[in-house]
Amino acid sequence: MRILVVEDDHPLATFVQKGLEAEHYAVDLASDGEQARYMATDSDYDLLILDLNLPKMDGIDVLRSVRPKKPSLPILVLTARSRIEDRVQSLDSGADDCLIKPFSFTELSARVRALLRRGPRTVDTVLQIADLELDRVERKVKRAGKQIDLTSKEFGLLEYLMRNSGRRVTRTMIVEHVWNLSFDTSTNIVDVYINYLRKKVDEGFNPRLIHTIRGTTLIATATAQDVTANHQFVSEVFHSLSQPMTALQCSLELALSYDQTIEEYRTSIEAALANAERLRTRLSFLRDLAEASGAGDPAAHTELAELLEEVRQELLPLFESAGREIAIHCPCVEVRGEPRRLRRGFIYLLEYLQREAACERLVTMTAAALPDRVKIEIAGLRPAMDSDLESAQMTIARRTFEALGGELRYGTGKECGWRIDLLLAPLVSCNSGS
Q: Domain 131-201 is of which CATH architecture?
């Protein structure tokens, strides 16, 4: 039996591979979504074990890409996303089973055996929602037993909607999947065909099955997006903790389950210690997160130029190892906030941006004093993505600055780029001798 394991955490992937190979499976590894999609579709595997939090392409997108091309491939999803909705989304996107991190290797092994026992997966040839039936082989549609005649494009649109039943699909998604075109905002082709379908599928029947979200629901959508961002952040933190916990548990289980030489035991113990240290680091990270929303001493203030230079010196090895430099230009001003809190906020921010957003060799922080605040602009970075603003490190930085009356944002237009605003201290010291 040949298994593809897709996991970006190398220690965890290695432990899973080692454990499965000890049970006489042939195991290949992939570390990102794009590599996983290529390997899963280009080669023949008996089982795919897929992590959801992957670089380059998210696990859900891998599922949606692989499943149509490999309808009989059993897929087991590994996820630290603890919400029921996330597991439901995985199953609806093509997964056969889900395993929540942290997990025991013993349970993983049992689920692998169960999936392999099921044999080839059968493809649903008939889609059904309420009394509406769509036969994908005969290309026939019935509602309440009555035949409905559809054009080829109407059939394709209805099939796409039924395969995504209960999920909100946008015009862009419909155009890209049904028409295989890039979305053109000037076209109303989707609305035209939705109206065609509604007349044929819904008129004269009860209940209505095709719904369009318009108008005031946009307000509810904005609120839902905020809630989703919070859920994604919590999932990321949980994922960050579960990775070393799972690797630690698997390494200890494997060390106890199989006869090993003294050197192999030593290697297992060293790996366990390394994962214990990773777990300690993650817990320290959670402590910083808990403290980030607190303002601390309301009377505290910090000399900004000295603080930024300390941050620069601490991060200099990190930037140099990536072939980059960091420069600071700051007037002698004092800002509100405890030095320790501000320092932590800047370090989390710059560590993340250097890793994920740096696009030039020189990253520059330039501060300018305004009447009541300091504006800090960071140059040499790419535009913000939604994931940047929702990441755990960015959340700590943003909450730290906001708790002190400041702001972290990515500006557009004339203020394009990363920008931090901090409140000036009540007494501003601009003379190094004072």
A: Orthogonal Bundle (1.10)
